[in-house]
Amino acid sequence: MAKMKPPRSRLLEAVHESARDLHRVGWIDARRLRTFDALCALEVPSLSAAQIKRLRGKLHVSQAVLAAVLNTSVSTVQKWEIGEKRPGGTAMKLLHLIERKGLDAVL
Amino acid sequence: MAKMKPPRSRLLEAVHESARDLHRVGWIDARRLRTFDALCALEVPSLSAAQIKRLRGKLHVSQAVLAAVLNTSVSTVQKWEIGEKRPGGTAMKLLHLIERKGLDAVL
DNA sequence: AGAAATATATTACCGAGTGATATAGTTGTC
DNA sequence: GACAACTATATCACTCGGTAATATATTTCT
């Protein structure tokens, strides 16, 4: 079993390992294995404060609404946009999801 | 301006307020306003430790994979399942999303 | 049985998340 | 213009979630 890709990150490394195992065990076939390749899209780019603010602007939603959608507090969204705090892993994931698929994707 | 609903939560309250405003301003029509009613589905049920563990089991993914999908650490997923830590707002949102729509919804 | 990989636990630290509140800035209404 | 209502910005203080690193089962393959 050869490593198929240079490790983008430790997390994605784990993904490929597990995917390989699942395929070997039979949980997933070759076709579905490609689905896991789509997992490479998991790379979350880590949006900057300004990018978050612009994203919300494009969505035409208030900070309160965005906070509600993300199930977090307005205060938190605030600090993200100011740059006082950086979104955590799961928060970045959601923001990235919305950026790519739109708000509806997370409703 | 009358409050239209008993406050389910402060966040959802904010959603309805803003939605009403958007509608008044003309950003969204009556049809799309109902989309915001779908936002009531934002109510995130707060999964228990056992529920998270069972959810991952149903998905047939390892903790490493789930952690990668959620863009968080394995250690964190661990503590969720043990019950040592409770997932934050954004994490709960993602878990709830997966529970309803499946893994693909967050890829 | 032994090696390799995964899952479970433990420890310790930092900073994200949160609430509360106060202060501008905006927009609409009279 | 003045006033009201809402949104955004900012500050403070706290705590608890997120994270790394490590160690220890538990499983699985050779």
Give the rounded overall mean pLDDT of chain A.
75
Can you count the helices of chain A? 6
Oligomer: homodimer
Q: What is the CA-atom radius of gyration of chain A, in angstroms?
A: 17 Å
The strand count of chain A comes to 0
Name the overall outline of chain A. globular
- % residues in beta strands of chain A: under 5%
Largest interchain contact = A-B, 42 and 41 residues
What structural class do helix, strand and pairing data of chain A support? mainly alpha
Task: Please estimate the helix content of chain A.
Answer: 55-70%
Order of helices and strands of chain A: HHHHHH
What is the terminal separation of chain A in angstroms? 40 Å
Unreliable parts of chain A: 1-8
Report the sheet with the most strands of chain A, covering strand number, pairing sense and barrel closure.
none
